Ubiquinone biosynthesis O-methyltransferase
Amino acid sequence: MNQAAPGNVDPSELAKFSALASKWWDPNSEFRPLHEINPLRLNWIHERADLKGKKVLDVGCGGGILSESMAHKGADVLGIDLAEKSLKVAELHKLESGAQVDYRMISAEQLAGEQQNCFDVVTCLEMLEHVPDPKQTVKACADLCKPGGWLFFSTINRNPKSFVFAIVGAEYILNLLPRGTHAYEKFIKPSELAKATRDAGLEFTEIIGLVYNPITKVYRLAKNTDVNYMIACRKPG
């Protein structure tokens, strides 16, 4: 796990996730939603990019929940993050699970200076709403992806409904997430993310929503993108 100086990063966001680092792999902790949605997003990615044998980059990997699951699908995975404590947890967990994942403490922007056009698949999930300049991160992901490769992003829409569901509901009523996890002004509309991908030279191919039912306590993929959503892109070539 190599260390690098932070770039496009909010120190308060790093501190927030570092404080919770020890809980990454506890499915009943503040990271429970990530554990519950991971099979949905993993399968959605795998159905489009067929991860087996692919060189994959997981940007903003945190404790390695998605990174490990992609490795178990047969991918050669590099997970990167700037939260040192989260990466240490990821390193320790892979010793228990046997997952073949490499981790580095480096930003996507810095890695793009080293490894342009190197990855078959790039994932950046639940991360764009936590950086100062999401467009810069999208551009770095595009630079890192091979021509013809796949890129997947997920974030939260910005509208009154997402404020009610993602902040008031999830953080204050249902206690699905710690209070202060998200800042409404950092949420990103699908049209804004689509433009960022096009500006980075990518082809926007698909969008899907993630919906939570508070009664059944079950997440599912849906056409509704009012709150949480994922997009798939291709790099031409």
